[in-house]
Amino acid sequence: QFVSRGVSMAVIYAIDYAEVRLPIPDQDLAYIDLPLAYRGSQAPPKGPDVVLRAKFAGKEYSWQGRIVVTEGQIDQESRMLHAVAEVADPYGRGEQPDRPPLAVGMFVEAEIQGKTVRDVVVLPRIAMRTADEVLVVDRDNRLRFRKVNVLRTDRDHVVVRSGLQSGDRVGISIVEAAIDGMQVRVL
Asked: What DSSP assignment string belongs to the chain?
């Protein structure tokens, strides 16, 4: 056969490592040490570890990787920055002998190692009365409204940076018409 100029003949993939493009929401960037490159600087240090998980043929498999670079732009529509994770030997068996290769086009979920935060309290989201207020039960079993500084909120939990002390009892039950100083029975 003859091939004309500009016709694609094949697609070739490297097998020594795979690159996986990971969209990271703008609001999550504060919690990850990403490798950022500046003009005129040396290559940025490697970023955080990543665990990639995928379901294949009804089973879940995982691959270890590391973020090696971030793309130079934020998506204008989604406000996401794309980081690139590198996975060594994506076609090797690794420690899971029945694991399939990390094939191009496979859908994966990524768990990225974030920054460590100390001296915080993690509460169930239901504990929040307003965006920055919780109910604390004092020593006399009376309700007290307490303002807190929320670091992060997700679907199920709230991470509180300040406003609570060690030993505080935070109410998680829904109390209709709660009043500061109201007597309650603790279960």
From this structure: ----TT--------SSEEEEEEEEEGGGGGGS------TTSPPPPP--EEEEEEEETTEEEEEEEEEEEEEEEE-TTT-EEEEEEEEE-TTS-TT-TTPPP--TT---EEEE------S-EEEEGGGEEETTEEEEE-TTSBEEEEE-EEEEE-SSEEEEEES--TT-EE--S--TT--TT-B----
| pTM, to two decimals | 0.71
Per residue in 116-126, pLDDT (tens digit) is 888 999 999 99
Give pLDDT tens digits for 108-160.
999 999 988 889 999 999 999 989 999 999 999 999 999 999 998 888 999 99
Q: How far is CA 124 from the centre of its chain?
A: 17
